[in-house]
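As a warm-up, study this chain.
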Amino acid sequence: MYAAHVPAPMKSGPVVYTDRELLCVLIRLAQGESTLGRRTFEQRRRGAGPSAPLYERRFGSWSRALELAGLDAVARPEQLRDATTKWTQDQLIAAIRWCLLVTGSTTLAAYEAWRTDPVNPKSDVPPATTIRFRMGSWSRATELACS
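Now compare it with the structure written out below.
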C-alpha cells in the first residue's frame, strides 16, 4: 500500500561515541539521581558533548537510552497526567503519509518544513513533537506510517 519504510539517512563520518560512552555520559550527568530529563541533561552537558537528539537517534527514544543506562524513564509531568490530545494515532500516521506523498520524505526535518511552510501552513496536522511523544520516537512513527 505504502512505500517500504526507509530509515532516515545517517550522517557520514566516523561514530564519535560508542554506545557505552553515551550511556556513561547519561549516568554521570544524572549525578546520582534515578532519572535524567532532557532539559536537565541539556543544562548539565558540555557544549561539545553528545546531544539529546543523538541519544534518540542511536537508541530510538530518550526513554530507551535512560533504560539502557540503568536509569528510570522520565515520568510524565503531574500536570499532564490526565491530559488528552486532539490527535488520534490514525491522524498522526495519516499526517506522516500525507507528508510523504507531497514531499517524498519522512524525515523529521522534511515533515516540519512541510507542516510550517509559510506559503501553505498546515494547522490541521500535528507537530512532530506530538508525534514523537505519542509514538515513542520519530522512527517508530514513520515505520508505522510506511507499513
